[in-house]
Amino acid sequence: MAGQGFAADDRPDFPKILEFFTDPRTEDLQARQHALLKRVVQKCQRGFRLRELPVVAELLDIVPKRIEGLIEKDAEESEELERTLCNIIRITARPNLRQKANEELLAPGLKAAAQILEQLLRLQSSTSVRVAVEATRALTAIATPEDTSAAGKAQKKLNRKLLLEANAVQATCAKVEENANIILAIDDDGTERKVFDARATVDFIDADTSDDEDVTMSRSSSRGGRRRKPRSAKTDALFSDVLSYSTHKRTLEYAQSQVLRSLVHLLRELSTDAQSSFDLVECGGARACVKLLRCYLHDPAASDVVHATVEILWNVLEHCHDVTDVAGPPAASRTKLLSRRRFTSAMYQLSDDATIAVLRQILQHLFLTGHKADDKRLRNEVLIVCSLIASHRKSHAAFRRQRLIHLLLDYACAAELPEDAIEVRTQATQSRDPRSTEPPLADRHTFATSSNEDLETKRILWSMLSDLGRAEEENLKLVVEADFMGALLMYLDVEALDAADEPEEWDDDETAVSRDTVSVNGRRIPGILKNLELTKLHVLQQQAMAVLLNLAPRAPAAFQKLQGHILALRFLDACDEGNDEATQNTNATRPSARSADGLVRGALMLLISVVGLPGLQNELGNLDGVEIMLKRFADSRAGANMRNDAVMILAKLCENHEDNQARLRRGGGGFFFFL
To answer: Rounded to an integer, what distance in angstroms lies between the CA atom of residue 606 and that of residue 583?
Structure first.
């Protein structure tokens, strides 16, 4: 056997096998060559040795050419040889066998592994769908070894580095965009049409931000200079209307769907690495993913390609967000600064109208049809992607232009309505087209239940709307007009929440009587809050106060009109009473070890932000605001931060106000005058 390509230890003699394929005297003996490859597969099931990889890499280059030559001559033999090639590719995905300690870290081992990766990346573009899918799956397996031990983690780190050096991210992104363009370029009737290229237009859309200038950098300029691109009227009008992409079902062949699935799964694994994420964004991979999402707008929840693509966007945005938030060394040059803030910034690259429009259409579909828990989880992942994009100011105008902020406000406010009110609003909008930019309101069971998924949706919506209303005056106006602040203040109305928590009344026939509970600002308390767990209610109350702390100083008139200052003071007083009389605690303010301090601190900070508004000194003073703050300051169980907050509120209440100063003296706070 050794003379026919097998060594004495029954391992294939790879140099002789390669010679058999390349020798002019034997290169046409295709049946013998195929038999040798089958024996290789049989004898190397556990993996290839590192010293065998250079020959395997050459075989991965030679065998596909043999297959192409056999297609016309012998299609059956060509298909059999293709299956054998796929088996060899699967073996390359398994851990390599080493014969010496740390052999994979030596120069020959690193070079051999790099050669295999190079061939696998080349096979991604194979005309054979089967080979292309197997090559991509092999790369995915190499990027994520199954071994979770310390040695396995070290191998994973080494593999990721080799994949990075082999430009695996760039090659895979190019294939994703190529396949997406093919799908988008053909309508259902088979006619080709021009593909909308977001990258060709997004560079013209700039917003006035604190860290960006309205300039574009020439990447090929050796001096790193800048050049300005004047806007034309055509460019300004490009995104003047709301974008709406086709939601017709696109017919994908099984082979094409398998290629896309393998590509996005590979990208998902690679995007978990920070440097790979930056490379993915810089080569246009993030926008290629958005383009791929357009292929599944007819039913996003039905395809695992959409799930994986959303995860990719989440990963790259999170890595970008972490780098932006962490205070690192300053950029050495303007070119590096632009690279950090634009070219490798997923938040900047995805802040265009095309991306926001696609995400809006996906969310519309998931809100209207997402009844299952898996659909709701996908919806929340899309919302998280939107929230990460919203953290960049450049996207705020796009949220408004593409009416995504309107969709978010609709569901953020509707979720705080009673069940019958949601149903009335849903029925009133049933005549709208679900695919339009003003879709009907979904059934309440898809977004307004007490499930963990719907509560997470609520929290993500609140946080995102807080970010959108913080920097854009027009967005803030939309938030105020939608009564979003009124919905949040409902969580601070202690009396209404306590009444909602009481048992229902019964009439003479022992029939339950539905009793509406009305908040101070006129809102009816939804029934969902009556059965909400205490810990969940406290989490929502804390977040409501955090969002109001952001919005109230920017919209003081609306906050004061909704009597937010009164609700915050009563909520703080109820928290104080709850600490004093544990037996009389209500569901709304009953303290727990983890949340009581957070509720008190949130209410204090909210009051600090609005107590200086005109007219509030009188109103809060008449509502025993001075006495409540003195009580909070005198509480020995309160931390130093909360007592400091109480002192700050007292200072603002008593500043140039004789009545409140008198209340301070009567309450035993005269010593403040000597501080």
So the answer is: 27
Measured CA angle at 133 (ends 127, 135), to 5 deg: 90
Query: Nearest 5°: phi and psi at 128?
Result: -85, 120
Distance (Å, whole) CA 244 – CA 361: 8
pLDDT given at position 614:
82
Query: What is the structure's pLDDT at 3?
Result: 40
Alpha carbons 393 and 404: distance in angstroms, whole number = 15
pLDDT tens, residue by residue, 266-291: 999 999 998 999 999 989 999 999 99
Query: Would you give the distance in Å from CA 76 to the centre of its chain?
Result: 47
* Nearest partner of 574 among 563, 583, 586, 564, judged by Cα: 586
Half-sphere exposure of residue 394, counting CA atoms within 13 Å on the CB side? Answer: 24
Q: Which amino acid is at 668?
A: G
Question: Which tokens is 204 given?
Answer: 């013209």
pTM (two decimals): 0.83
Count CB atoms within 10 A of the CB of residue 427: 11
Dist. CA 117–CA 135, nearest whole Å:
9
- 476: Cβ–Cβ under 8 A, 6 or more apart, which residues? 469, 470, 551, 554, 555
Q: Which pair of tokens denotes residue 30?
A: 């295709």
| pLDDT reported for residue 647 | 85
Pairing mode, if any, of strands 512-513 and 505-506? antiparallel
Q: Which of 563, 562, 537, 567 is nearest to 458 (CA)?
A: 537
**How far is the C-alpha of 20 from the C-alpha of 27, rounded, in Å?**
6
**The pair of three-digit structure tokens given for residue 662, joined into one six-digit string:** 């008198």
Helix axes of 129-143 and 254-270: crossing angle, nearest 10 degrees = 20
In Å, what is the CA distance from 383 to each residue of 89, 479, 535? Answer: 38, 18, 23
Q: What is the per-residue pLDDT across 307-366, written as a single tens digit (0 to 9) for each? A: 999 999 999 999 887 766 554 566 667 776 666 677 778 888 999 999 999 999 999 999
- Rounded distance between C-alpha atoms, residue 325 and residue 387, angstroms: 15
The torsion angles phi and psi of 49, rounded to 5 degrees, stand at -75, 155
Q: Which residues pair with 6 in a beta bridge?
A: 12
CA 221 to chain centre: 34
Q: Which residue has the higher pLDDT, 416 or 673?
A: 416
Q: Tell me, rounded to whole angstroms, the distance of Cα 329 from its chain centroid.
A: 27
Angle formed by the axes of helices 168-184 and 129-143, nearest 10°? 140
Integer Cα distance of 549 and 275 in angstroms: 36
Q: What is the DSSP letter of 189?
A: T
Whether the per-residue pLDDT at 437 is higher than 90: the answer is no
Maximum average pLDDT range among 381-390, 562-571, 581-590: 381-390
Residue 499: the pLDDT is 67
* Neighbour tally for 87: CB within 10 Å: 17
Q: Which helix or strand (DSSP H or E) is residue 641 part of?
A: helix 640-654
Return the pLDDT at 175. Answer: 94
Three-class SS state of 221:
coil
Model pLDDT for residues 594-640, shown as the tens digit of each residue: 467 788 888 899 999 888 888 888 888 888 888 888 888 887 777 78
